[in-house]
Amino acid sequence: ALLHALGDRKGINRFGNFSAPLDEALIHVSLDLSGRPHLSYNLDIPTQRVGTYDTQLVEHFFQSLVNTSGMTLHIQQLMFYIPILKTFNRIYIEATFKAFARAIRQATGYDPRHL
């Protein structure tokens, strides 16, 4: 769906990046809607599950998105803190998706200089 929505990619910024500071997590996402799929994933979620959610699905989601959309995507965990309570592990996932959302919004923004 994302590949179809991007069309010929004319008129968009193409590049986007955002760092999301969320409590003890600091996640940086940088992307290029280049048409060349590549994922660099450096995120260490301290547990394998957050509630009933398998945390390995985060990387799987982004790999699938990269493969089908042809984007270059770098996800970098800049700060790491081992929380005492396992419930805080969701912060890493939440910060990752928030940073990605801001970066994709920036990359898909219209810029007439790119026509």
TrEMBL record:
Its EC number is 4.2.1.19. Keywords: Amino-acid biosynthesis, Histidine biosynthesis, Lyase. InterPro entries: IGPD_sf (IPR038494), ImidazoleglycerolP_deHydtase (IPR000807), Ribosomal_Su5_D2-typ_SF (IPR020568). The keyword Transmembrane helix does not apply. GO terms for molecular function: imidazoleglycerol-phosphate dehydratase activity. One of its GO terms (biological process) is L-histidine biosynthetic process. Gene3D superfamilies: Imidazole glycerol phosphate dehydratase, domain 1. The keyword Amino-acid biosynthesis applies. SUPFAM superfamilies: Ribosomal protein S5 domain 2-like (SSF54211). PANTHER family: IMIDAZOLEGLYCEROL-PHOSPHATE DEHYDRATASE, IMIDAZOLEGLYCEROL-PHOSPHATE DEHYDRATASE HIS7. This is Imidazoleglycerol-phosphate dehydratase. It comes from Glycine soja.
